[in-house]
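Example record used in the benchmark description.
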Amino acid sequence: MKITRKNLDDAVDENIITADQAVKLHDYLSGLPSVGPTFNFTNVLYYLGGLIAIGAMTLFMNLGWESFGGWGILFISLAYAGVGLKLAGIFQEKGHAIPAGICATFAVALTPLAIYGLQQALGLWPDESVYQEYHKYIKWHWLYMELGTLMAGLIVAWRYRYPFLMMPIAVTLWYMSMDVAVMIMGDYSDFQFRALVSMYFGLLMIFAALWVDIRSQGKIDYAFWLYIFGVLAFWGGMTAQESDSELSKFGYLCVNLFMIAVGVVVVRRVFVVFGAIGACLYFGHLAQEVFEDSWLFPITLTAIGLLIIYLGVVWQKNEKALTVKVRSCLPIKLRTFLESKTS
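Model output (structure tokens):
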């Protein structure tokens, strides 16, 4: 948790530390470099500058770069990446973890552009598409750029070990989930199949994020971006599935409710947010299509909502005993992980 001046003053009121110790401890903690994603003006500047630089070489890349040719694009990309890694090293030595992580991430984000330049230079580019379309359209031959980005990302993440480095890795995995579907289907476009691939790919990302989360034991949040894009790919693919069966739609509700429960257990809001959106979509379906002319439906739904509130009160009274009982059945590593999340 973040320790504020008020926390220290409260400790003084409880006679845990003296007022003089509180002042000295606050001054010491304030002088330490920020290592977490604290919302303050300094970190806003860090991330704003970093995202502008990353966006300039990815999302906002224009056709003007095509005039440099393949070799030009490759060497310029490598030069920019070298500058990013050099700055990351300098910031790391000075203890500025956030700007170091952003600069290292900037270097990784240049990998697709460098691979694109190399393929163009060697005459291996398969069609008339350009790098500007990489973030707009789904094509099978983006896979070379994505695999290269994953390799570069894992190497740089192993070297610098900053959580923000997981962002380009997670985004690349999300892109791959779409491009792999195109590679399998070829020219035949099947939206449902793509959604299914996205759903299963997202599920794999979620399990990978959980594994990373357990391995890190809550010390540094390496799993954040994997959870974000894993849930996005899974939930988006699941929601895009079509079905005329009310049973399958009810199953969709159950999965979303399960996501909310998982989010509470592993303390990840992204599960709760998307699960709540999915549940609302299901209830909207009931209101507009199944019970369109029923005056009883809103009353019933209100009663269900109040019942859930009551169950929350009951759970709060018995939470400790039930939690201990359930966790006693889990493996030790998972039990330790969950305890670290709620401590």
